[in-house]
Amino acid sequence: KRADGREQLKSYCHAEGAPIGVWTNGGETIILHRQDPNNFRALTDIPRAWQTLSDLVGEKWTLADLAEHNVLVKEQTTLKKIILDMENLVLANAGVDAFEEVFKLIYAKLYDEWYAAQGGKQKRYLQFRVGGTTPREFKDKINALLHKAKDQWPGVFLRDELIDLTPEHLVTCGSALENVKLFNSDLQVIDEAFEYLHQKVAKGEKCQFFTPRHVIDMAVKMLNPTVDEYVIDTAAGSCGFTVHSIFHVWGNEFTASGHAKWQSDYASEKVYA
Predict the structure, then answer these.
(1) pTM of the predicted protein model
(2) Does residue 229 lie in a domain region?
């Protein structure tokens, strides 16, 4: 299994002192760089004959590079599997709320991709990259992205909220997420991951209970809402039905290029929760 293979690969790297380890089961591949005895980061490839390890980990990426190496496509994996890997590596024992921390990271990464997409012909380098930085510098960089995301899309986090993970733990999580392209992905890719996280925290006073994604999909497809119809959910909770209805009408793609006026008008005038 993937989780067992990852742990075995790490143990081999420890025993041999190897800076890079590769594991595969024929369908999935994991490449890890052993940065120090307790920290590993994921790599997309092993160095070519003309490259050094430093060349690979310190390379600057544009949005086009991210699209080319997007692990959701290249490795046919899912965001849920990546979050499971993050849990196995650090989140389970990090002493933080896994849902909150993953949400902050995804929020910051969405802003990074969105901002890079606004450059047009001018190439803007992505900031959500681990290579070439110390753990402290990487945490400062992600917190800066989070602040900018809160300015661009206010109302989701408090103004003073920051990443609670330690710099070392954040590097591990960042290396797992940095090669994931979130915008222009099918909504279900993100939805499945948040459903898994919700299930882990759906207890106690938070009361984060919700209708399973597959039930929502079935109901929305049966209703088949159109751009001329209203969608009203009087007990919205996490707004699964309303969000899925919006994306059903829009075409189910999560894009960074902005929405057409008809899409914004539909969401603001026809959908209520």
Answers:
(1) 0.71
(2) yes
CA dist 253 to 189, 214, 258, Å?
A: 10, 17, 11
pLDDT higher than 80, residue 78: yes
Same domain, residue pair 169 and 215 = no
Do residue 222 and residue 163 come from a single domain? Answer: no
Q: How many domains does the chain have?
A: 2
Q: How confident is the model at residue 11 (pLDDT cuts 50, 70, 90)?
A: confident
Q: How confident is the model at residue 138 (pLDDT cuts 50, 70, 90)?
A: very high
Give the number of other Cβ atoms within 10 Å of residue 85's Cβ: 20
Cα(187)–Cα(98) distance, rounded to whole angstroms? 21
CA dist 81 and 2 (Å) reads 9
Kind and range of the H or E run holding 232: strand 231-232
Looking at 154, 189, 224, which one is the last position of a domain?
Answer: 189
* Containing structural domain, residue 214: 210-272
Place of tokens 């699209």: 67
Looking at residue 67, its amino acid is: A
What pLDDT, on a 0 to 100 scale, did the predictor assign at position 201? 56
- 62 Cα distance to chain centroid: 17
Angle, CA 77 vertex, CA 75 and CA 81 arms, to 5°: 140
> Are 49 and 183 contained in the same domain?
yes
CA 195/CA 208 separation, integer angstroms: 10
Summarised one tens digit per residue, pLDDT across range 22-31 is: 998 887 788 8
Residue 202 pLDDT: 55
At residue 137, the pLDDT reads 92
> What is the Cβ-side half-sphere exposure of residue 212, based on CA atoms within 13 angstroms?
3
